[in-house]
Amino acid sequence: MSSPIPSIDQLQTLGLPAPVSYMPQTWGWWVLLGLLIVGLLAWSGWHYWQWQRNRYRREALARLAQLHSRNELSSLRELPELLKRVGLSMPSPGTHSWTTNTVGASLLAKAVQHPKLKVTDSPLLRADGTPPDPLPQVAALGGTHWQAFLEQHSPTALPADFSQQLAQLAYAPDATLLALPAQQREQLFSTCKRWVEHHHVAA
Question: Cα-flanking dihedrals φ and ψ of residue 137, to 5°?
Fold first, then answer.
């Protein structure tokens, strides 16, 4: 006797498997996900701190661009003051503040070795070579000591008489500044911009 021929009405729909979950199935993946989140938060926080720490640098560059575009006598007069403000705003080593106005301890250590500074005549050190207490402000630096500060925080070489040029901009008569060649003015702006952009804070 022959078996009956199956009818299409007898076909049944097969059940589909449950969808695969994208959630971690073991505790190890949860640990890895937690570490990734913590690492991302730490990386974001560090970059935000760096961005805030360099706020003074961005503001100084914006002001420098304004002075350069005006290219007036008052613009030249303001260059020494602008660099002083940058020096005062530089974060001190070992701190998280970008508004401190004291010279870092590492600067004192470098001052002893700087070829233009003598231990006995440095305002950063006592006669016996020990640092004073409290530390002097950057605003008190002048002459060779200001030149030394600028050089110690510059990754590139500065003109040997850069501090003298800044002093001339601050104190020379108007006629002297007006007589400066255009090329020398451009060089002054360029040197100031390069220092503000690339100066480093001693660690």
Answer: -85, 155
Which helix (H) or strand (E) element contains residue 69? helix 55-70
Q: Which two tokens stand for residue 15?
A: 């059940």
Residue 77: closest CA among 197, 196, 195, 176: 176
What pTM, to 2 d.p., does this model score?
Answer: 0.63
142: CB partners within 8 A, 6+ apart? 163, 167
pLDDT digits (tens, 9 = 90+) for 116-173: 433 333 444 455 555 443 334 777 888 888 999 999 898 889 999 999 999 999 999 9
Q: What pLDDT digit, counting tens, does each position of 62-84 carry?
A: 999 999 998 789 999 999 999 99
The pair of structure tokens assigned to 73 is 């006598």
Instruction: Give the contacts of 93 (CB within 8 A, at least 6 positions apart).
Output: 104, 105, 106, 201, 202, 203
Structure tokens at 190: 């360029």
Cα distances (angstroms) measured from residue 150 to each of 131, 143, 161 = 19, 11, 11
Count of CA atoms in the C-beta half-sphere (13 A) of 120: 0
